[in-house]
Design a protein that fits this description.
42% helix; alpha/beta; 4-stranded parallel sheet; 7 helices
Length: 178
């Protein structure tokens, strides 16, 4: 907080995979100390657990950055990297959802990004890209959110695929934080 007062920093944020870390920290620091949280993999097609925390964060005046709406590659046609820590059941459900979207002529990454961008309580969505083509695809998907609704039928079916593993996550950091 003193760094803010002397003008060395303008904003202070925290990040972590386990959502309970945000409440743990925010309940222990003076109000206004933390300006923003960056949560990843918790507001995407397969995991919307961040939704439950939004009212609390808003009550604290804390902004929200939703990172990795593609769940670190799970929601891509290329699939996640080999080191991805997601449980096999979640990885299998993601593969099934990718295949379903392909059969319906939709790219699951585009659908996932559009889903994440539609939540007006989340101020920023952060997505990684590794090519100019991905930048173009993501900009196109973002623009389409403004001009049309995502295919609700496909979203409903994808939701059914994820129901058995909804909000399933993986360990990160110290065991007691998960």
């Amino acid at each position: 907080m003193k760094l803010k007062e002397v003008g060395k920093v303008r904003f202070i944020g925290i990040t972590g995979l386990p959502l309970k870390i945000f409440k743990y920290v925010l309940d222990r620091v003076p109000e206004g100390t933390i300006d923003v949280v960056l949560s990843y993999c918790h507001y995407c097609l397969n995991d919307t657990a961040l939704e439950d925390l939004i009212p609390y964060l808003k009550s604290k005046g804390v902004g929200i950055i939703n990172a990795s709406p593609l769940s670190m590659g799970l929601l891509t046609e290329a699939g996640p990297p080999s080191w991805h820590p997601a449980p096999i059941a979640l990885q299998s459900a993601c593969l099934e959802a990718v295949d379903y979207c392909k059969r319906k002529g939709r790219n699951i990454s585009e659908l996932a990004l559009q889903f994440a961008l539609q939540n007006e309580d989340i101020s920023t969505t952060l997505i990684g890209m590794n090519s100019v083509e991905q930048v173009k695809e993501n900009v196109k998907a973002a623009i389409e959110v403004e001009s049309q609704q995502s295919d609700l039928g496909i979203l409903e079916e994808v939701g059914k695929i994820f129901q058995p593993v909804k909000n399933l996550t993986w360990p990160s950091g110290r065991a007691e934080n998960n």
